[in-house]
Structure formats: C-alpha cells, structure tokens
Amino acid sequence: MRTKRYAQTTRALLLGLVLTVLTSAAEAGTPVPPPASAPPPAPAPGRVWPVGSRPPVLRGWQPPTTPYGPGHRGVDLAAAPGSPVRAVAAGRVSFAGPVAGRGVVAVTLAGTGDPPLRTTYQPVRATVRKGERVTPGQPVGTVEPGGSHCAEPCLHWGLRRGTAYLDPLGLLPPELLRTGPSRLLPVPGVPEPPA
Length: 195
Hints:
By secondary structure, the protein is of the alpha+beta class. The chain folds into two domains: 1-33; 57-172, Glucose Permease (Domain IIA) (Distorted Sandwich). It contains two helices and eleven strands, in the order H-E-E-E-E-E-E-E-E-E-E-E-H. Strands 1, 2, 4, 5, 6, 8, 10 and 11 form an eight-stranded antiparallel sheet that branches.
C-alpha cells in the first residue's frame, strides 16, 4: 500500500514540476521545443513528394529508442533508377556527394526554426551543389541504380532537426497522403438524400 501511494505521489510531483517549468517558460516568452515525435512545422506551401506523384511507401519511419539503436530513420519510397528527385520544400543544399558509396543530397529547409529541419535523399546522383538554393519541386538529382538498402529500387527520404530523427511524411499536407477519394459517413438520425 505504501509503495503504491509513494509511486502516485512521485508521479504527481514530477508532473507538477514539468508543468511548472513549461508554465514558467511560457510566461517568460521562452519557446519550448516540441518533443521529437511531434510533427515538424510545415515549410512554405508548395510541398511535393520527392519522387513521383504518390509513390508507394515500401518501409515507413520507425524511430530508434536510443541514439544508436535499431530503427528506420526515414521512409523508403518506390522509385525507378533515373527517376528525378525533387526538393520537398524551399531551402539550401547543405551536402551533395557520396557517403559510404551512396550518393546523398541534404537540404536545410528555410524558415523551420533553430535548429532548422534538414531533409536527406539517397541514393541520388546530385544535380545541385552545396550552398545552392532550391525551390519546392525543383530537381536535386536522379535516383541512382543500386546502392540502396531496399529489396527493390527505392529512394530513402529522411528528416532531422539537430540530432533528432523525424517522420518526413509529416512535411506533406494530408491531401498528398490520401490514397483514395474522401468518403462521408452516414449521420445517425439523418435520412440519406434520394439517389
């Protein structure tokens, strides 16, 4: 009985401490960073898929529980070799070159806070250079044949803020993520219109 009461008291104290810190930060005007699992702030309009118009997601984002733990730090999108790879949002190329034998392009997204969001694309034969500004939908390279960790040709698309890995699908508006037409559900008690 004492152990249970002790655990409840400890939880209540910790919750109170967290709320006090957040309230103090908010009152002081100090920005409180969102947790790593929160969706990132969206860059300016014009967001597009990096390849195709709605490529199949071969493998989704699985955040690691520790910095070097297992997981999948991005998403794999089906993409044929030679397919154009586009910037999903406006930014500046922060890297374009090989990493461990695979071509990589990294773009730091404009207006996404401090530290800013950074997208990565691989395996990509870059058509841009470090320091170059890119606009949403602008080609940054083409999918390289081979060199991928997928069983079939794919583009690995990643997203980071500082050292935290985030789900890159969070950059896309909901209408780009839909797989079929929107459907309305019946409302109980309201008759359906005549056909």
